[in-house]
């Protein structure tokens, strides 16, 4: 049985590409277009010879509220939490809910070894280490006629 493709994945990928095209342009304010702001996760991607290291800011979340996934050359980081406060006074009950979510998807420049990926979370900073995949050697020899 084949699994149906989620149409929102394509839409999200489109907006990520659109955002990346403009984020380094001088004078471009992402908040004007709704692409930045409070729910935007700040991310650094470093190339360290044999591995990539991604550092992402996710303050206020616990490590259980953060999901990191690697699929092919795509890294997705999601953080989601919900707070619920109830306050009761005599006959008055007040209930407040607050939820917060962050999501960021990065296209990695080279394939990585998915099994070797590791992540740590300390003081609101998520650090993900992604070992690069060894280049495939050999290939298929083509005879020329």
TrEMBL record:
InterPro entries: A-crystallin/Hsp20_dom (IPR002068), CS_dom (IPR007052), HSP20-like_chaperone (IPR008978), Small_HSP (IPR031107)
Segments passing through the bilayer: none
Domain of life, source organism: Archaea
Pfam family, one: HSP20
Region described as Disordered: 80-115
Record-annotated CS domain positions: 38-143
Domain named SHSP: residues: 34-145
Xref: PROSITE patterns: CS, SHSP
Record's compositionally biased regions (Basic and acidic residues): 91-103
Family from the record: Belongs to the small heat shock protein (HSP20) family.
PANTHER family named in the record: HEAT-SHOCK PROTEIN 20 FAMILY MEMBER
Protein name: Hsp20-type molecular chaperone
Lineage, broadest ranks: Archaea, Methanobacteriati, Methanobacteriota, Stenosarchaea group, Halobacteria
């Amino acid at each position: 049985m084949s699994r149906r493709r989620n149409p929102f994945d394509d839409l999200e990928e489109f907006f990520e590409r659109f955002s990346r095209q403009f984020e380094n342009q001088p004078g471009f304010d992402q908040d004007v277009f709704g692409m930045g702001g409070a729910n935007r996760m700040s991310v650094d991607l470093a190339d360290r010879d044999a591995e990539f290291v991604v550092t992402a800011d996710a303050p206020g979340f616990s490590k259980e509220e953060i999901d990191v996934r690697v699929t092919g050359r795509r890294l997705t980081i999601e953080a989601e939490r919900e707070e619920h406060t109830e306050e009761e006074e005599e006959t008055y009950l007040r209930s407040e809910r607050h939820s917060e979510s962050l999501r960021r998807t990065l296209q990695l420049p080279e394939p990585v070894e998915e099994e070797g990926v590791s992540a740590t979370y300390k003081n609101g900073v998520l650090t993900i280490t992604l070992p690069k995949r060894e280049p495939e050697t050999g290939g298929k020899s083509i005879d020329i006629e």
